Amino acid sequence: MKEQIKSSGDLVFLNDFSGEYIKIQDGRRLNCRLNRCPSKRVLVFGGSTIFCAEVPDSMTISSELQKMTLDRKIETDVVNYGIPGIRIENQFKILQTVDDLGPRDLVIFYDGVNDLNTISDWT
Fold it and tell me: Which residue of 42, 91, 101, 102 has the fewest C-beta atoms within 10 A of its own C-beta?
């Protein structure tokens, strides 16, 4: 997936891609099924754990969360903003580009090992 990751200044993003198991549209990994509810979303940011390159679109963490919301009749869309290797400061920059962020949207950051070398620089 390394060739799919691009940057513009400090902004990191994914190129669109359409494979048999992985699809990236508008820079985001697609989920199994969206509820098409743009007024209420869960935006999930993180690195490779959220992107889930080892599994098809239907089995990512974001897809599983989408399935759980649909099973419970919760009208919301789960959007996968995972990018392998991305760090928290880049995720915040991407969040700042979401111009239609609404009051009913929920933002989740799931981070860990990608930020460890940054933390060690602070000590």
Answer: 102
Residue spans per domain, the chain: 2-122
For 69-83, write each residue's pLDDT tens digit. 989 988 899 999 999
In whole angstroms, give the CA distance from residue 122 to residue 15.
Answer: 32
User: Which are the contacts of 23, defined by CB distance < 8 A and separation ≥ 6?
Assistant: 17, 29, 30, 57
Q: Tokens representing 70?
A: 């649909």
Q: Which of 30-34, 54-58, 60-64 has the lowest average pLDDT?
A: 30-34
The span from the CA of 108 to the CA of 123, in Å, is 27
Separation of alpha carbons 67 and 52, rounded Å: 16
Q: What percent of the chain has pLDDT over 90?
A: 50
3-state secondary structure 22-88: CEEECCEECCCCCCCCCCCEEEEEECHHHHCCCCCHHHCHHHHHHHHHHHCCCCCEEEEEECCCCCH
Q: What pLDDT does residue 1 have? A: 47
φ/ψ bin of 23: left (φ > 0), alpha (ψ from -120 to 50), beta (otherwise) = beta
